[in-house]
Amino acid sequence: MAKQHVVLLFGGNSSEHDVSKRSCYNYYKALEATGKYDLSVVAIAQNGYFLDADRSMKIMMQEDEQPLVDSYMAELKEKGILSPIKALEDLGQIDIFFPVVHGNLGEDGTLQGLFRLLDKPYVGAALRGHAVSFDKVLTKEILTQNNVRNTKYLVTHAFDEKKLTWAEVEEQLGSVVFVKAANQGSSVGISRAENEAEYEAALKDSFQYDHKVLIEQAVNGPRELEVGVIGNDKILVSEIGAHKVPDQGGDGKGWYDYHSKFVDNSSVAFEIPANLPDAVTEEIKDMSKRAYRALNLQGEARMDFLIDEDNVPYLGEPNTLPGFTNMSLFKRLWDYSDIDNAKLADMLVQYGFDAYKKSKEISYSFESLGEEKVGTFNGKDGNKN
């Protein structure tokens, strides 16, 4: 029996381009270890072009990317409207796509729309689940509507005639806030502010990445927690992981930023499972499940929490395509939950096939309209037109 062909996509034009390479490598090795699949990889260059499998493999293995992109573009004979995805034609029969594109394209629903147009199964949430969850403001609105506790917040836009002043922010949210680009991931476009100068600088930074910015109340004495969630109809929740960076908690200004997540986490203290009261552990797992349902997620997600000095948990945000690098806590959480990398990757592929099969149960049939018969309309002067 022929093996099913899994195509992993990585890269993209987001700030998490290089992170995606590392995540894809680990998923590739995990699926390879199962012995169940034929595997191909497709790199999406920062110019949006999908590269051929040979060059993509070299890029995933950390060869210098730009010369490979340049040579592919030079060899591309035609540059038509579909040329950015032309490389897919050379892959033969594709049974399922496995997107490992963090941030733009992968987590905002763009690639999922392509997969649906191609009528192919894919790993992870449907387009609407990604799109809603990628927008931090929409996420908080849905969480609030579904009684999933999250921090108090304000929203400002680049087009607002009246800008939110620091005085207004401080009055409503307190003297310490986080300023976040609404549609970014992995701590990109996020800053901590506790005075007017820091607030203005934070806004300037966040508006580089989006025209909508979330201003979020800080949690007192915070601990940061992460929970892995997988599944479609039946949901599995991992052990809860905690991490602490130097100078975090109390009046400290440290937090789990991009550098700590992906560049150097040697000074980060990890704890799996997190040392929490049993009741709080159960509450966080329940909040994770309810958020997963409310946001229409499936396949995989990571839920990020903050817990205050009184052990009250707040759901920060979901990540619908969590990092799978050697530094990623999501990867480690499932190891501690007795699901190794190979088993996890295999489960995610099967969730993708299951979701596709279930989607085919939905009817999109229509009734032919037949001959068009238009009625009459009264004009402004009362005459029929």
In a nutshell, what does this entry contain?
With 385 residues, the protein is an alpha+beta fold.
Give an account of the 3D structure:
With 385 residues, the protein is an alpha+beta fold. Helices cover 34% and strands 21% of the residues. The protein contains 12 helices and 12 strands. The protein has helices at residues 17-34, 53-60, 65-75, 110-117, 127-134, 136-145, 166-173, 196-206, 258-262, 278-294, 329-336, 341-359; strands spanning 4-11, 37-44, 96-100, 153-157, 177-181, 190-193, 212-217, 223-231, 235-244, 269-271, 299-307, 313-319. Strands 10-9-8-11-12 form a 5-stranded antiparallel beta sheet. A 4-stranded antiparallel beta sheet has the order 4-7-5-6. 41% of the residues are buried. Mean pLDDT is 91; it is low at 248-252.
Layout of strands and helices, then pairs:
Layout: E1 4-11, H1 17-34, E2 37-44, H2 53-60, H3 65-75, E3 96-100, H4 110-117, H5 127-134, H6 136-145, E4 153-157, H7 166-173, E5 177-181, E6 190-193, H8 196-206, E7 212-217, E8 223-231, E9 235-244, H9 258-262, E10 269-271, H10 278-294, E11 299-307, E12 313-319, H11 329-336, H12 341-359
Parallel strand pairs: 1-2, 1-3
Antiparallel strand pairs: 4-7, 5-6, 5-7, 8-9, 8-11, 9-10, 11-12
Helix pairs in contact: 1-12
**What is the helix/strand order?**
EHEHHEHHHEHEEHEEEHEHEEHH
Low-confidence stretches: 248-252
Give the distance, in angstroms, between the N- and C-terminal Cα atoms. Answer: 67 Å
- Strands, count: 12
How large is the share of residues in beta strands? 15-25%
- Record the strand order, biggest sheet: 10-9-8-11-12
Shape descriptor reads: globular
Q: Helicity range of the residues?
A: 25-40%
Structural class: alpha+beta
Count of DSSP H/I helices: 12
Largest sheet properties: 5 strands, antiparallel
- Rg of Cα set: 23 Å
- The average pLDDT score comes to 91
